[in-house]
Each structure stands twice: as structure tokens, then as C-alpha cells.
Amino acid sequence: MSRTVTVVGGGAIGLSTAWELSQRGFTVTVIDKNATGKGTSWAGAGILFPLMPWEYEPRVFELCIAAADFYKKFSSKLFKITGIDSEFIESGLLCIDPPDKETILNWAKNNNIPVGPGRGSAAGSAVAYCIGITNVDPIEYNLLFERFLNPDRVSLPDIDIDFDDEGRGKVIQYVIDKYGSSQVAQIITYGTMAAKSSIRDTGRVLDLPLQQTDRLAKLVPDVKLNKLFNWNKEEIKNNLSNDQIKNAEELIGKLSEEGIEGEVIRQAKLVEGSLRNTGIHACGVIITPSDIRDFVPVSLAKDSDMWCTQYDNSVAESAGLLKMDFLGLKTLTLIKDTIKIIKAISGKVIDIDTIPLDDVKTYELFQRGETVGIFQYESPGMQKHLKSLRPTAFSDLIAMNALYRPGPIEYIPSFIKRKHGNEEIEYDLPVMEEYLKETYGITVYQEQVMLLSQKLAGFSKGEADTLRKAMGKKKVDLLNKMKPQFLNQGQERGHETEILEKIWKDWEKFASYAFNKSHSTCYALIAYQTAYLKAHFPAEYMASVLSNNMNDIKTVTFFMKECNRMGLNVLGPDVNESWYKFAVNNKGEIRFGLGALKGVGHGPVKNIAEVRKDSGNFVSVFDFVKRVSLKDCNKRVLE
Fold it and tell me: How far is the C-alpha of 32 from the C-alpha of 569, rounded, in Å?
């Protein structure tokens, strides 16, 4: 197999691609685009994963990248590359090149479907950033490519893509139209019988009264029946609380009882874990090079004409099928709606991807903890910590997004104290400051463990990611194998064994819940965008928040209280001013959306808006009834 990557294009992106790949262990050959005789025809030609691997031989990976200005800030570093002879890593990095074909992402953007800035480890790739798959600069935020792809990774990496909630269905339909309905399928999921549901189902079949069945099910702790019944007394004592022990002993006693309750328990034990129902994977889509029936068995998806695989997610991936995750993110719809309202009211066009990330008004909103309706930062606990933290930089938001989850949440008070100089920042070894300085000496991200293992013990980039996975998934055998390597190589670099032991122990505790910095950065960016809109366009933003939650009257009431706190008037529904969604009038007041009224759908609102536009406002209820279509605005709608 060839061990050369050819980068076609000598512009800023072509050279940044070469630079990144060389840093990641590739042997890179750069071909200047002018030397290919292609002239400017390379423009717009390149797109990285997720793509069709069957279209290219994996022996040579050609990254056909268009030159662009937005990455030229690295040109002084990049243009010094004259020849690279690094160890090549054989990987699943693939590209597609026909300039006449639109990519899925480009199609979405060209059809006004918002696309998220990135998701997961893919944000660590500068190439993905250059060609528009992600919108977060990995070099600026020190995101690791190895978290996405490294020499020890055998399987192809995923790039999950967020689309706005309303546009996701259109994107999937585009994929079906592009590749053919016989080559695109959703993925089946299999639901199994859990301990409590197996007791309830068995009790129903054996005609045990519902009250007795329910009492038996409530005796079950959060443990599988077969596991519970195989535990000895010591294991029960060690794994269950006092209340659970009492219930478990009663349940175990009934296992050997004669009578219907004993039979229910015995039969439930037998059927536990068996398949109970099927569903559809929330976001996964399989795309095949030819008819999908040549590769996997299929069936019709429930309530859809679209096929679904009869292999579940893990089997489909291990069978070598290409899985693409198209996720619907309601927050992207919210941002889109806000921008639309701003344009309608003031004519101002907001490009959300170019807003400044050092906006004082936005950080003041975070500092006051006024984050109701802000993506990922709206819980009362998060608001409390934000008031104490008083974030002043985007890195603070990235860290808080990673810390505010079970496990690392206990480090938040220390993180805040260190930021404000109320607690001394300590490092186990001075060399650790390079990677822990931005988080005040606290290990927050998985990437920090990876970088430090390379720095302290000389781990390769692939070994560092293997360590991260082993710690995260608590693979004891692998950890036992890697620990001596870490200690020995660390000693060779002059570090004391005792300190290395402490660092390892801290990592073992931390890494099981450590967060991916790439993902945290992408979602912190979305949160910042929502906060920016709330800070600068409060009425327009809150109208969008209300619109995106108008199917739940309790949530609408909650956000209306936030509007009152902000000093925004929310006016009742008005046939002369309301639209389907919540809107903002010329006075900056929010007008209730007709779609939030029970029993009023798109049809009646569309008819009202059209009549209002054609012949002016309604002057009375009689005028209204006379002018609208009574087929759409029937008695139920009027009431």
C-alpha cells in the first residue's frame, strides 16, 4: 500500500493541510495547483468525511483543497515547508473530488438550513475547518487531531453533523434523492426486556392482579434479575443500600416459593433480556454504493416509506457500512428564527458566524447569570456558578461547559477560586503548566490527559489516545499494561516515581468522566451565539424561544416570566398582528403566536395572514368572519 498523501493545491489551505498532516504523522507531497494544468478548476472541489469510501482506492489519498484567505494567518509558518519525511499513518482519511457535485453541507447551507459549528472530536481537524465541515479553528483553541484520528485507530471516524430541527428532514430527503431510496436507510434499534418490565409482562400473562405485579416490580433494585439471584450475601451487602437489601431478600425468597408470585419471578428471570420491541435510531443513516439489499437485510421503518436496516448500529458499523449521523438541534432553529425576526423588524442582516467573541455585553449577561433560554447554560446550578465565575473569555465558557456535569462538577468551586486568585494554583510538576494553565491547574479535558502523557512519558499520539480511551472506559487490563510504560518512560525523563504514581491515580479518577474539549468548544460557541442575540436583541430572541417551545404551555409560561423579568411586554394573540409563531411588533413588544393556541394549526393562520395582507386589518369580529375562509377558520378555531 502506498504511504504517500498527495495534497493538491499550494494555497493557504493546501499548505495548512500539508502542515497538519505532517504534524499528525503523514508523509506529504504538495502539488501546486497551477502545476497540474487545472487552473482555477480546483476551487470548491474538496470535502473531507463523511463521504463515499468506495469511490476511491484507499492507496492514495488526494485532498483537493480550494485556496482561501481565512487561514492565511498561518501562512508564515506554512510556507516554510519545503519537504516532509515523517512516518505515515495508514488511516481512514478520505476525500471526494468532483467539483460539479454539491456536498450535503453545502446543499444545506445553500438552502437556508443552518448547520452547527461542529460536534465531537471532528472539530480537532484543521482540514475539516478549512473546507467548512466545522466552524471552530482547532489551532486557535488547541484541539487535538489525534482525538479524532490517530495511528492506533482502526475504524473510520464519525463526523456527526447538527442541522436545525426543522431542516433535518429536508437534508435526509436530499440524501435519498441524491443516492436513491434503494441506497439509503435508517438504522433499527432493538429494545430488550428489563428486570421490572419482564415482571410486569409476565404478571399480565399469568393473570397476577395488577396491584401484586406492581408491588413485585418495585422490589427490584437497579440490577438485572439474573445477576441479583447469583449474588451471595456479601455481594448483596456491598452493592445495595439497606432498603434495597430488604427488598432484594424478599424477591430472592419468592424465587423458590410455590404459587403464582413465585412462578412470575421464575418466568421473568427467563425472559429478561429478550427482545421486546424495535425502534429507529434517532439520527443514524446508512448509505451504500449500490442497492442496500446487497449488503444487509432491510424492512420498512415504522410510520415511514424509508427502509431501515435489520442490523442495529454496532452490527451495521462492524459490517463496514457507512453511517452518517444527522442530528436535529432545536437551538439552531431558534437562532435562525431570531435572525429572521431581526431582519423583518430592522432590515439588519446578522451573520452569526462572524459575531465578535469578545463582546462585553454578552459576557456581562453570563456574569449576571441571566442565562434562561441560553443553550447548555440555563439550569439554576449553572447560573449560580456563572455569577461566581464571572467569565471574561471564551475559554471560561468552554471550561464551564465541560465541568458542569456529574463528576467534574465538584471541581467548579476550586476552578472559580483559582481564577480569582483566592486559591493557589498548583502543578504536580512544573512542566504540566503548559497544558493546565488555561484551566488554572485543574485537568478538565480528555485532551489534557493526552498531551500530558506525551509530555511526561513520551507517549506517541496514538498511545495517548489509547490511554484516554482505556481510562474513560475503565479497561483495567489495558491500564495495567500502560501504567508501567508511563512510570518507566516518565522516570527516564527525570520525573520522580512517587509523583508519577499520584498523577496516574488522579487521571484514573478523572478520565472516566473527563470531557472532550473539541465538543465542549463547539457547543460553547452555540451557547455564546444565543447569549449574544439575547444581550443585543432581547425581544427578538425571546420571541424565538417562545416559538420553539409553544407546544408546551408550562414552558411558555416559564419563559413569559423571564420576559417580564427582562421588562419585555408579551401581548395576547391578535388577528391583526399575530403570526403562527411569536413575533415582535414595531414597538419592540412580543406578540403571542396563534400557533400556541390549542386547536389552531397552520391552515387557519395562513388564511388569516393572507386575507390581512390582501385587504387590510379586521375591524370587527363580523368583518373577520365575513372575510376569512370558514373552511379553514371553522367554529372550533373561532372559539
Answer: 60
Pairing of strands 28-31, 5-8: parallel
Below-70 pLDDT ranges, the chain: 1-102, 126-127, 130-131, 150-158, 511-512, 637-639
For 112-163, write each residue's pLDDT tens digit.
999 999 888 888 876 677 667 788 888 788 887 777 776 666 565 667 889 9
C-alpha 8: how far from its chain's center?
A: 32
Tell me what pLDDT residue 465 has.
84
Which residue type does 105 have? L
| Alpha-helix runs per DSSP H in 256-359 | 260-271, 313-318, 330-346
Contact status, residue 584 vs residue 543, Cβ threshold 8 Å? yes
Residue 107, C-beta contacts closer than 8 angstroms, at least 6 positions apart: 171, 174
Q: Closest Cα partner for 609 from 635, 578, 570?
A: 578
In the block, residue with C-alpha cell 412470575: 264
Cell readout for 110 is 445553500
Cα–Cα distance, 219 to 250 (Å, whole number): 8
Q: What is the DSSP string of 2-24?
A: ---EEEE--SHHHHHHHHHHHHT
Per-position DSSP letters for 398-451, written without gaps between them: HHHHHHSSTTGGGGHHHHHHHHTTSS----SSGGGHHHHGGGTT---BHHHHHH
Cα 436 to Cα 449: distance, rounded to the nearest angstrom: 10
Sheet bearing 275-287, strands edge to edge: 161-164, 322-329, 275-287, 184-192, 307-309, 298-300
Question: Containing H/E element for 583?
Answer: strand 583-584
CA–CA distance from 562 to each of 342, 379, 538 (Å)?
A: 20, 13, 11
Helix, strand, coil percent content, the chain, rounded in steps of 5: 50, 10, 40
Residue carrying the nine cell digits 370558514? 630
C-alpha cell at 201: 409482562
Residue 50 preceded by cis peptide, ω within 30: yes
φ, ψ at 476 (rounded to 5°): -60, -45
Q: Are 176 and 277 in contact (CB under 8 A)?
A: no
**Which residue is it, cell 434495597?**
244
For 62, the 3-state DSSP assignment is strand
Strands 161-164 and 322-329: parallel
List C-alpha distances in Å: 557 to 378, 422, 549, 562.
Answer: 16, 40, 10, 9
